[in-house]
Amino acid sequence: MNEIEIIDTNVDNIYDYGFCGIKNIKQEGYKRKTDWLIKRFSEGMRFKILHSAKEGFVGMIEYIPGRYAWRAVGAKGYMVIHCLFVLYKKYQRRGYGSQLIEECIKDAKREKMNGVAVVTRKGPWLAKKELFLKNGFELVDKAPPDFELLMKRFKKGAPSPKFRGDWRERLNRYSKGLTIIRSDQCPYLEKWVKEISETAREKFGLKAKIVELKTCQDAQSAPSAYATFSIVYNGKLLADHPISNKRFINIMNKEVK
User: Fold this and answer.
1) Which of 77, 142, 172, 187 could connect to 114 by a Cys-Cys bridge, CB 3.0–4.6 Å?
2) Do the beta carbons of residue 160 and residue 141 sit within 8 Å?
3) pLDDT for 27-40, tens place per residue?
């Protein structure tokens, strides 16, 4: 067996490998993510693991046809990358990120798609655009505060993917109180949503309304480009990506002065 290999998971083997750096597979977030993946496989989801013979999971890429994307993008005809990362410094800058991108490109071409699209940002939680630019992607759209949509187009003349937009209108749906918008796309959210909800009640006297994104259409209608996690307070977007309980406290201390 090679030291590092890329494993294409599916319904039959998804339970055989850990993912996202989670060591305790009994965690509720792990179970919810696994169930979410199993539902998505029938929609064309690919979840490929970078696996070390010695250390197990050390990276991954997750992508799905744009029609079923869980980002606030319009990307029909494109394969959309949700997540890509490589754990541990010793595995980084060794070309594994590019290998994972190439896996996506090959699958998209095999399915005769227009290309591949990905949401990046300057801040945390999404891969930096430089990796994709190096692999032939180009910038096609932007969304607040610093999200960027990149694509690698295969078919000349194919329409470019774009962000859904209408961000103010989307936020207006959550104009009163504290709302946490979440999905099972990230296995860490179970823990953080519970902690943030308890802190909101105990420290700030707020009962958080939890909005569960159940479908890709729900996600594509979310008030931030990242889509699968947001915190909104009285119509103001406080978090456009997953945050810790400590970060939530710091934000709310400024909001409720």
Assistant:
1) 77
2) yes
3) 788 899 999 999 99
How far apart (Å, rounded) are the C-alpha atoms in residues 183 and 164? 19
Mean pLDDT of 41-57: 92
Contact 105, 113 (CB under 8 A): no
257 neighbors 243 (Cβ within 8 angstroms) = no
Instruction: Dig out the tokens for 213 from the structure.
Output: 């994104």
1 pLDDT more than 60: no
- Single-letter amino acid code for the residue at 176: K
Radius of gyration, CA atoms only, the chain: 18
Instruction: Write out the two tokens for 243.
Output: 């945050």
> How far is Cα 81 from Cα 146, in angstroms, rounded to an integer?
18
**256 burial level (CB within 10 Å; 0-12, 13-18, 19+):** exposed
| Ordered domains of the chain (ranges, CATH) | 4-163 (3.40.630.30), 167-255 (3.40.30.10)
pTM given for the model: 0.94
Reply yes or no on whether the pLDDT at 202 is more than 50: yes
Phi, psi of 104 (to 5 degrees): -65, -45
DSSP string across 209-236: EEEE--SHHHHHTSSSSS-SEEEEETTE
Residue 68 CA neighbour count, 13 Å, CB half: 16
Which region holds residue 80: left if phi is over 0, alpha if psi is between -120 and 50, else beta? beta
pLDDT band at 23; cut points 50, 70, 90 = low
Residue 208, pLDDT above cutoff 70: yes
